[in-house]
Write a structure and sequence with these properties.
The chain is an alpha+beta fold and 248 residues long. Helix content is 41%, strand content 21%. The N terminus and C terminus are likely disordered.
Amino acid sequence: MLVQVSVGSGSTACAISKNAQLSSARQPVSLKCLAANETLFHVGDPRDVLYRVESGSICIYEPRLIGSHAFIDFAFPGDLVGLGFLKYQTCTARAMVDTRVSTFPIESLDSLVAGDPKAEAKLAQAIEKEFELHKASLVEAGRRNPVERVAALLMALSRINRHEGRDPNIIAQPWHCRAVADQLELNIDDLAQVLLDLEHLGLIEACPLPDVSTQGLRIKDHNRLEKIADRNHFDDGDAIDDARAARH
C-alpha cells in the first residue's frame, strides 16, 4: 500500500530548512588535539577560524613586552575561543592540559553565538577589549600620520558595526566635533582637513543620518582605507599631497 504523508505548510518547510542550515553551520570542520602547554594560536595570527573546547582547558593571555604574561581568561569544555572583530588575534591561547578543540569557519560566528548568553557575553567582551586596544594603539602611535589615525578609527568602527548587525559602510557619528578630534589627538581644523583629503580621494563621503540632525560618514572604498590605516602600507600619501595641491 502506498501512503502519502504531508510534510506541512510552506512556512513549516521554510522553518525546517532554516533549522537545517543553522545545524549545518554549527558543525565543526575538524578536531584538533593539543598537548599540555601547546599553543593554539599566537598574537598576530590570522583570525580565520573559531575554536570550541571539547575537553581539557585553554588559557588565553596577552603577552607583555617584558616576557611575563598578563592572564586574561580560561576556557573550558563548551567555551568558544578566538572571538573578536579584528582580522588578527590579539591574544595567545595555550592548552593547560591535554586538550581537544573543534574548529569552525569564521563565518559560523553568528550561528555559534546566537542563543547562548555566555557566548554572547564573551563576544561582547572581546569586541569591547579589542576596540579599546585599537584606540590605545592610536594614542601610543602619538605622532603617527593624522590620516592613518583617522582611517584606523573609521575601520575599527566599521568592523564593530558589521559584528553588531549594522551597515559597516555607515559611520553614524558626528565627526566635526572636538570629542573625536581629542580622541585622535588632532585639533578641529586638522580633523576637517583629513576628512576632506579622504573625501577627495573617493574613500568616504558625508551622508545624512535618519532621525538625526547631524551628518555621518559613508565609507566608499574599504580596501584603500584599510591600507591607509595600516602604517606599513601607507601608499596613498602622494595622492593626498596631490589632492591638497590641486585644491590650493
